[in-house]
Amino acid sequence: MEVKKYTLGQLGTNGYLLMNDEDLVIIDPAGEPNRLIKEIESINIKPKAILLTHAHFDHIGALDALRDEYGVPVYLHANEHEWLENPALNGSKYFPVKEVICQPTDHTLNAGPMSIGDMHFTIIETPGHSPGGVAFVFNEERLIISGDSLFHRGIGRTDLPLGDYDTLIHTIKEQLFHLPDDYVVYPGHGPATTIGDEKKLNPFV
């Protein structure tokens, strides 16, 4: 499986395309829809789904454009189903950006195993940065898409609506840090890292 990272939008949010020979999945279409569509067309594999690590505005800026372009379902944790349509919840109301309002999600993400085509992964609930945050763990490929929970030498902010610092620290220690040290972490912002490096060097945990 190949992972392609794109730094998108005003906040430099990471969006991802994950693909194998048959399947392509979009994770966190953060912005710049025309750029993402151009990339997808060059890959020449039709997307099968859009997965959201959470529903903050900087992770969903291109959501409706890509959903309309490819007619694919959107998956989001139940705790944030209302956020797509609500700028006060998705945070766009509080930043100097156009308010983000998206169509409702199609499906709910639940903790546990999930498959899309020949892609097999595990969903881990990662609340703290937001109440419905999740991470996508690809055990065969030994990688994780962590959203805004764990960063390279950092953690997600907890000063937005319904964020909670203690919950986030518990999430990282009890969920993410139980993964093997060599798992590569692809975060919502900044460069990739590994679980082992963050156990040793992350100043917050």
UniProtKB/TrEMBL annotation:
Residues 12-189 form the Metallo-beta-lactamase domain. InterPro entries: MBL_Glyoxalase_II (IPR051453), Metallo-B-lactamas (IPR001279), RibonucZ/Hydroxyglut_hydro (IPR036866). Its cofactor is Zn(2+). Keywords: Hydrolase, Metal-binding, Zinc. The keyword Zinc-finger does not apply. GO terms for molecular function: hydrolase activity; metal ion binding. It comes from the Bacteria. The keyword Transcription regulation does not apply. Pfam families: Lactamase_B (PF00753). This is Glyoxylase, beta-lactamase superfamily II. It comes from Halolactibacillus miurensis.
